[in-house]
Design brief:
Helices cover 30% and strands 26% of the residues. The strands form six sheets. It has a nine-stranded mixed sheet, sandwiched between helices. Strands 4-3-5-6-7 form a five-stranded parallel sheet. Strands 17, 18, 20, 21 and 22 form a five-stranded antiparallel sheet that branches.
Length: 544
């Protein structure tokens, strides 16, 4: 069963009810920025507005997209890319692609022109939908891009090298196309985050998409009365598949363009949101604003807000303890996953297990987990090894990359590359990325442990720990530390705080600087290693 069946069901049962709201708050910033400065959540208009569509309109728009593509020869086996900011058109286009039997290929909107072209070639894209913000980048590679491909522009003022989305779908049927879709049919290609170079193309089938949708609804008990607040970009698996819990339930969702504490709380209040997915920085900024007195909870209507969940990166225990000080009645969950596992949820804490904050949790709905050593043998409880997951949401393959596929998929198990351990109760704790392990004087050091400890410091806003080259030890631990706005902090203060850790885990060097994060909130450690002369450490050690 494809997830498009849920959309058609909602059309029949709840047709006149609101499905999606696009909310663009007032923007005071007037300076002009280039695409290189785009934030994770980008506002596309300086004017505040609110748009909404019903389930019937949603489904009819998707059908028009599907019938238009079919009329142009697009069907099973073809790939259709989406290069757009979050908007009301995004999901109908995505579902329209799925209804043709073709493969949907969402693009990161912060891709450069070269990265766009790279991913177009890698995924063998046949059609690309793009918005007005991308005209410059698309135009710069137009000559190569248009060779054998259809470019569809979504917005006002269609450029000459593309066709107008509005004109193409205007006269197309709003009836569902008669295309039979099976669980094993290819459905979507997602790209890895690309923190270690150019991204890999991750192919999923329709069973994966349905698994992610049903799992989200089950994990968070989403029902018809819920309203989900979606802030991260829809091109990423996390945002889309968390939203699909609302699709399964037939309930409303809000696409918010803005991440300040005031904007988030105002949206929750005015739209009566009950479920909110936050990245760690946004949650921390809400807490900081409350601590400073910049915002007051009494100014908002928040009693209906029942669940806050976090994914994409390890969550400091201190953050959740502090969160519960302000929101004692909130249910809480954290979600772990990769694009290779159809996004977050293959491991999750569970709303009933807040006493285990610090763990990423237990296997998610219909998932299995194991932790193995370098010989693929399961390790004993309490020992560190590589986390492997297995379930109906595992990718089909890395598209056109059999070697990478064979390295990551073994007998149906996805080798995540994450180092983890399991406690006596069966809860999994993430220790670090396999490739991020620091070996200092023969001692294995796991940066996430240090980051989680240091994040509890009252003056630290963000922290990243990497290995730095050292002639005697090979590597030493270095901490890049970002201090909270309006505060000052010395190296001595941090070193004194770190006395609470074993000596070998204490950072040997403190660097005060911003911590870069990618679109999913993960620390860009390759960029930090390069910046501080720590890339290719093994090669450096061999050459020294």
């Amino acid at each position: 069963m494809p997830v498009t069946d849920y959309l058609e069901r909602n059309h029949k049962l709840y047709g006149d009810e609101v499905a999606l709201i696009e909310l663009n708050p007032l923007v005071e910033e007037t300076r002009r920025i280039s695409w290189k400065d785009y934030e994770l959540v980008q506002q596309t208009d300086k004017t505040a507005y609110r748009r909404e569509i019903s389930w019937s309109v949603f489904d009819e728009k998707a059908n028009r997209v599907a019938n238009m593509l079919i009329s142009r020869g697009i069907g099973k086996g073809h790939k259709v890319a989406i290069l757009m900011f979050n908007c009301l058109e995004w999901l109908p286009i995505y579902f329209g692609i799925l209804k043709t039997g073709a493969i949907a290929v969402p693009f990161n909107f912060r891709f450069s022109a070269e990265e766009i072209m790279y991913c177009v070639r890698l995924a063998e894209v046949d059609v690309m939908f793009f918005g007005p913000e991308f005209i410059g980048r698309v135009e710069s590679v137009e000559e190569e891009l248009i060779k054998g491909r259809m470019l569809i522009y979504v917005g006002d003022g269609c450029p000459t090298f593309a066709e107008s989305y509005r004109e193409l779908v205007a006269d197309c049927s709003s009836k569902a196309p008669l295309v039979r879709i099976e669980d094993e049919d290819d459905a979507a290609i997602y790209f890895s985050s690309g923190t270690t170079g150019f991204p890999k193309a991750i192919l999923h089938n329709h069973e994966s998409l349905m698994q992610a949708a049903q799992m989200e609804q089950k994990h968070h008990l989403t029902d018809r009365d819920d309203t989900f607040l979606c802030i991260p970009p829809l091109y990423h698996t996390g945002a889309k598949f968390h939203w699909m819990g609302s699709l399964c339930a037939g309930s409303k969702a809000v696409l918010l363009k803005g991440t300040t504490p005031e904007i988030i709380l105002d949206a929750i209040s005015k739209e009566h949101c009950t479920i909110v997915w936050l990245l760690v920085p946004w949650a921390q900024e809400i807490l900081d604003a409350l601590d400073r007195g910049d915002i007051k909870l009494s100014d908002y209507k928040l009693d209906q807000w029942r669940l806050m969940h976090i994914g994409a990166q390890p969550v400091p225990q201190s953050l959740i303890r502090h969160w519960k000080d302000y929101f004692p009645n909130h249910l809480y969950d954290t979600n772990y996953g990769l694009s290779e596992s159809t996004g977050p949820g293959c491991v999750h804490l569970g709303i009933e297990n807040i006493h285990k904050v610090g763990a990423i949790g237990i296997p998610g709905y219909r998932w299995s987990c194991k932790i193995v050593d370098e010989n693929d043998n399961e390790v004993d409880q309490g020992l560190v090894g590589e986390l492997c997951v297995k379930g109906p949401g595992v990718m089909t393959c890395y598209y056109n990359d059999p070697e990478a596929t064979a390295a990551s998929l073994k007998d149906g198990w996805l080798y995540t590359g994450d180092m983890a351990m399991m406690d006596e109760d069966g809860f999994i704790f993430l220790v670090d990325r396999k490739k991020d392990v620091i070996i200092s004087g023969g001692e294995n050091i796991y940066p996430v442990e240090i980051e989680n400890f240091m994040a509890a410091h009252e003056k630290i806003k963000d922290v990243a720990v990497i290995g730095l080259p050292d002639r005697r030890l090979g590597e030493i631990t270095g901490a890049i530390v970002s201090i909270k706005d309006g505060m000052t902090c010395t190296e001595e203060e941090i070193n004194e705080f770190c006395l609470g850790m074993p000596r070998y885990k204490r950072p040997r060097k403190i660097i005060f600087a911003d911590v870069p994060r990618n679109a999913t909130g993960k620390i860009e450690k390759p960029a930090l290693r390069k910046k501080y002369g720590a890339d290719h450490l093994v090669a450096q050690q061999n050459e020294s």
